[in-house]
Amino acid sequence: MKTKVDKFGRVVIPKAARREAGLSPGQELTVEAADGQLKLTRIEPQGRLVQKPNGMLVWDGGQLPEDFDVVEFINQQREERTQEIIRRSFGK
Length: 92
Known about the structure:
There is one protein chain. Helices cover about 30% and strands about 20% of the residues. By secondary structure, it is an alpha+beta fold. The chain folds into 2 domains: about 1-45, Pemi-like Protein 1, Chain: D; about 50-90, no CATH class. The protein has a two-stranded antiparallel sheet. A hairpin with a 5-residue loop joins strand 3 (about 50) and strand 4. The radius of gyration is 17 Å and the shape is extended. The two termini are about 30 Å apart.
């Protein structure tokens, strides 16, 4: 797969490569440069939110951070989903 570096130094990782690497929007990565090559590595969070087949969201993989605000998180997730629905429905 080929891609280009834009004038701001950004690189688009092709969709197939993102899927294969398990990358999602907002995913944090480490970048290592050596011998003219770049290595991107996912930074795994201590835990993660998983959507079950029935649509329920559950926390998987560890304790919630001490400063985790469940209500704020749910409101943020709801807002993101609402904005995505608006973008898909109205192209905004």
